[in-house]
Write a structure and sequence with these properties.
With about 350 residues, the protein is α/β, with parallel strands linked by helices. Helix content is about 40%, strand content about 15%.
């Protein structure tokens, strides 16, 4: 069997959930000795120009560029590449609507979530347009749709009008690196961030409206007013996404400049999870929600949203609160701290 996989997301600037999913899938195929059975495709990019983290993820695989010819004399070369693409038995598209479907093979599509449809205000107009094109391709061409949870599976089948038997939920796992890190081993990583083991609250995820940092900042302000977080800062880990500046401006508006630390991307995430008093993850909508799973794997207590897919991920192992209930979020975090 010849399998092609769209890895175009790896070539982008963001190391987010989709990046981690693609990198983890390739790591699993490599560990199973199947790297020689798969060809990876980027869209109009040069594989050699992949950023370092992406280059490490694709090591051992053949990386091919699906490049449209800009000059007529290059058409023969392009047709040769297209021939290899067309002879694949399966093609797994992750995010790029540009890869054309081919009759007679299994055209599989990943749909991580329907956030652009269910919570459109949390995305830019350009982002919604890109995903609209992608979802239209899924609706018209998918022989198989892969999701990460049963919630998203039902959502996809209903919204895209695809027979449920052609939609499969494959739950995510977390990298083996996510395991409890003892205080002595975590200390150097935490010291670099000015943190002490067990003495901070943590938020992990792209800073964007969907992740609901606004409710978290209000909850933290309420805890501060109760005197419940003295010497316990809130650490925000994650890339800055759409609307990040407005979201982070709440830190100053709520008088939390001395209490909230915006760390961005950190290399030592297992140590940071292990040292946290709790992870707060009050997201409005998730196709899966990997940070709560990673945190639990590191022994970190979790307070997460009760919405969409997160109850499947957290189960009975964490506290679940309504994402619109900042007071309930404060109560849950306060219960863990006390």
């Amino acid at each position: 069997m010849r399998v092609g996989i769209d890895v175009d997301w790896l070539a982008g600037p963001r190391r987010d959930g989709l990046f981690n999913h693609a990198a983890g899938l390739l790591a699993g195929l490599r560990a199973a000795g199947l790297a020689g059975r798969a060809a990876l495709y980027t869209w109009n990019r040069r594989g050699a120009a992949l950023p370092p983290a992406a280059a490490a993820a694709v090591a051992g695989f053949a990386v091919r560029d699906y490049r449209l010819p800009r000059r007529l004399y290059r058409a023969r070369t392009w047709l040769g590449r297209l021939g290899r693409y067309a002879r694949l038995d399966v093609f797994q598209t992750m995010t790029h609507a540009g890869f054309p479907p081919v009759p007679g093979r299994l055209n599989a599509y990943l749909v991580p979530d329907l956030t652009t449809v269910r919570v459109p205000a949390c995305h830019t107009a350009a982002g919604r347009a890109n995903w609209d094109r992608y979802l239209d391709a899924v609706r018209r061409h998918a022989g198989l749709v892969v999701t990460w949870t049963e919630h998203t599976r039902a959502d996809v089948a209903s919204y895209l009008n695809i027979p449920p038997e052609r939609v499969v939920a494959v739950p995510l796992g977390c990298d083996p690196a996510f395991r409890p890190v003892p205080p002595a081993a975590a200390a150097p990583h935490l010291a670099a961030l000015g943190l002490s083991f067990g003495r901070y609250l943590l938020a992990v995820g792209t800073v964007e409206p969907r992740k609901n940092h606004a409710a978290l900042f209000r909850a933290y302000a309420a805890l501060k007013a109760r005197g419940a977080v003295a010497g316990v800062p809130l650490v925000v880990v994650g890339a800055r996404g759409h609307g990040a500046d407005d979201i982070l401006a709440d830190i100053d508006r709520l008088g939390l400049a001395a209490d909230v630390r915006v760390a961005g991307f950190v290399e030592s995430l297992p140590a940071v999870y292990s040292g946290a008093a709790a992870l707060a993850y009050p997201s409005f909508y998730e196709g899966f929600g990997l940070p709560p799973l990673e945190a639990m794997a590191c022994g970190c207590p979790v307070v997460a949203s009760s919405a969409t897919s997160l109850p499947e991920v957290v189960g009975g192992a964490g506290l679940l609160v309504d994402p619109d209930d900042a007071d309930g979020l404060a109560d849950a975090l306060g219960a863990i701290l006390s």
